[in-house]
TrEMBL record:
UniProt keyword list: Coiled coil
The keyword Coiled coil appears for this protein: yes
Pfam families to which the protein is assigned, alphabetical: Erythro_esteras
InterPro entries xref list: Emycin_Estase, Hydrolase/PRTase-associated, UCP036794_erythomycin
Gene3D superfamilies linked to this entry: Biosynthetic Protein domain, EreA-like (biosynthetic domain), EreA-like, domain 2
Protein name listed in UniProt: Erythromycin esterase family protein
C-alpha cells in the first residue's frame, strides 16, 4: 500500500476520475447516485465528538429526506431520550417549548453525544420540514441503544397504569425485581442479582405489550413507544448476562438489539419506508472486514447487510487526519476538548492526507479501481466517548476499507463538537467493547 497510487498514470488522473472533492452539499451528488433506491443508509463517525461528522451527516440526511423520501433517522442513542426529540420535531402536545429544553433532559454521561449544538440545529430543521407534512408522513428520530433500563421501566409502568391496568401489575413486578440494584453503576452487578422469575417476567411483559399494542391509541406512536421500551428491558437482561461473563458477547447482544429495534421501526412504518442510521464507524462498518470477526463479533452494518441487502444497503464511513475532539479521558470523566493528533504512518487517514491534503469523497463501486486499491488491510482510527491520547496507536482498527464501507468521507482537519454544557447526573452506564464506543 506504500505505492498505493502506482496503478495510475498521475495523481491528477486518480483525483479526477475516482476520488471526488468534498467541500459543499453539491459534492455529495456521487454519493446520492450510489445510494440510488436503497432503503438502508448507514452513516458513521470516527469519533463521538467531532463537529464535522455531525454536520456532514445532517447534510446527507437532509438531501435523502428531501430528494429520496427517507422516512426516519435511527441513532446510537437511548430510546426514551431520543423519543423526546421525536415528539418535539413532530410538534406533539407537551413536547417542550424548544429543542434546548428537550436536550437539557439528557442527563446520562456522555451528555454531549446528543445534547449539542449540531443536533439542536438539525432538529430545528426537521421540525420545520415536518410542519408542512401530514402527521403520518412526519420524519421520525429514534434511539436504537440498550442502556436505558431504568428510564424504560419508568415509562412503561407510568403508561400502563393509565392505559392498561391489567398489564401494569406485571410491569410493577418487573420494576420491583430490578429496584434493589438501581443504585449500582455496574449492570453486571445488577444482572447477577436477578432470579429466574424476574427474567421470565421481563419476557412475559414484552409479549403482553405486543399482544395488546392496538389498545394504545392515545397518541399516534404510543404503542410503538411502549413496545420498544419493553424491548429495551428484555434485551438489557441479556446484555447484563453477557457483561457478567466479561467477554465480547456483550457487544453482540448490544448490536443485535439495535438491529432488532431497527426492524421493529421498519415494520411499524409502511413498506415503502427508508431509514438513515447514525452510529459510530465501529457499529456501521461491516465487522467482517475488520479484526472484530476474528474475535467472534458482529455489528449493525454486517447484520443489516445480511438481512436486507436485497432492499439496498449503503454503509458510509467517516474519518479525519487531525484536529480536536470532545471526549473524556476515562468513563464518567470530565467532558473536555482534546487535541486529535496527526494520524499515524501507514493508516488510512495518513494516506488520504498525503494525497493533496484536502477533503475527499470515495465511492467503492464494484467497477471502481478504488475497490481494489483499498482491498488491503489498513489501520483506521476509532475514538469513542473515552479518549486516551497517550495510547494513540491503540485507537486504530485494522480494516479492509473497500469491504467495510460502500463510501467514505474524509475530512482532513476537524474540530470538536459543541456541547450544550449539560452536567450528567452521575449515573454511569457499562463499559462497551471496544471500550467507550
Amino acid at each position: 500500500m506504500a505505492n498505493w497510487i502506482s496503478n495510475f498514470t498521475s495523481q491528477e488522473d486518480l483525483s479526477a476520475k475516482h476520488i471526488r472533492p468534498l467541500e459543499n452539499a453539491e459534492d455529495l451528488d456521487p454519493l446520492l447516485e450510489r445510494i440510488g433506491d436503497s432503503r438502508y443508509v448507514l452513516l458513521g463517525e470516527a469519533t463521538h465528538g467531532t463537529h464535522e461528522y455531525y454536520t456532514w451527516r445532517a447534510e446527507i440526511s437532509k438531501r435523502l429526506i428531501e430528494e429520496k423520501g427517507f422516512s426516519f433517522i435511527a441513532v446510537e442513542g437511548d430510546w426514551p431520550d431520543c423519543y423526546k426529540i421525536n415528539r418535539w420535531i413532530k410538534d406533539l402536545p407537551d413536547s417542550g417549548s424548544s429543542i434546548t429544553e428537550v436536550l437539557q433532559s439528557f442527563k446520562r454521561w456522555p451528555t454531549w453525544m446528543w445534547a449539542n449544538w449540531e443536533v439542536a440545529a438539525f432538529a430545528r430543521w426537521l421540525k420545520n420540514y415536518n410542519s408542512g407534512l401530514a402527521s403520518e408522513e412526519k420524519i421520525g428520530f429514534y434511539g436504537l441503544d440498550v442502556y436505558s433500563l431504568w428510564e424504560s421501566m419508568e415509562v412503561i409502568v407510568n403508561y400502563l397504569e393509565k392505559e392498561d391496568p391489567d398489564i401494569a401489575g406485571l410491569a410493577r413486578r418487573v420494576a420491583d425485581c430490578f429496584e434493589p440494584y438501581r443504585k449500582n453503576d455496574s449492570y453486571a452487578t445488577a444482572y447477577r442479582g436477578l432470579n429466574q422469575r424476574c427474567r421470565n417476567e421481563v419476557v412475559q411483559l414484552l409479549t403482553e405489550v405486543r399482544q395488546n399494542i392496538e389498545k394504545y391509541k392515545d397518541e399516534r406512536e404510543a404503542g410503538l413507544n411502549t413496545e420498544l421500551n419493553a424491548l429495551v428491558m428484555k434485551n438489557a437482561e441479556k446484555y447484563y448476562e453477557a457483561m457478567a461473563s466479561f467477554d465480547s458477547s456483550s457487544w453482540n447482544v448490544r448490536d443485535s438489539h439495535m438491529v432488532e429495534t431497527l426492524n421493529v421501526l421498519m415494520d411499524y412504518h409502511d413498506h415503502h419506508s427508508k431509514v438513515i442510521i447514525w452510529e459510530h464507524n465501529t457499529h456501521i462498518g461491516d465487522a467482517r472486514a475488520t479484526d472484530m470477526a476474528a474475535h467472534g463479533m458482529h455489528n449493525v452494518g454486517q447484520l443489516v447487510r445480511q438481512q436486507h441487502q436485497d432492499e439496498g444497503v449503503v454503509l458510509v464511513g467517516f474519518g479525519s487526519y487531525e484536529g480536536s475532539v470532545t471526549a473524556g479521558e476515562f468513563w464518567g470523566g470530565e467532558m473536555q476538548e482534546m487535541r486529535l493528533p496527526k494520524a499515524i504512518d501507514g493508516s488510512l487517514e495518513k494516506i488520504l492526507h498525503q494525497f493533496e491534503g484536502t477533503n475527499k469523497l470515495l465511492i467503492f463501486n464494484d467497477n471502481s479501481p478504488l475497490k481494489e486499491i483499498f482491498s488491503e488491510k489498513l489501520g483506521h482510527r476509532a475514538v469513542g466517548v473515552v479518549y486516551n491520547p497517550h495510547s494513540e496507536r491503540g485507537n486504530y482498527v485494522p480494516s479492509i476499507i473497500s469491504d467495510r464501507y460502500d463510501a467514505f468521507l474524509f475530512i482532513d482537519k476537524t474540530k470538536a463538537l459543541h456541547p450544550l454544557h449539560i452536567k450528567p447526573d452521575g449515573h454511569l452506564v457499562p463499559e462497551t467493547y471496544p471500550f467507550g464506543i
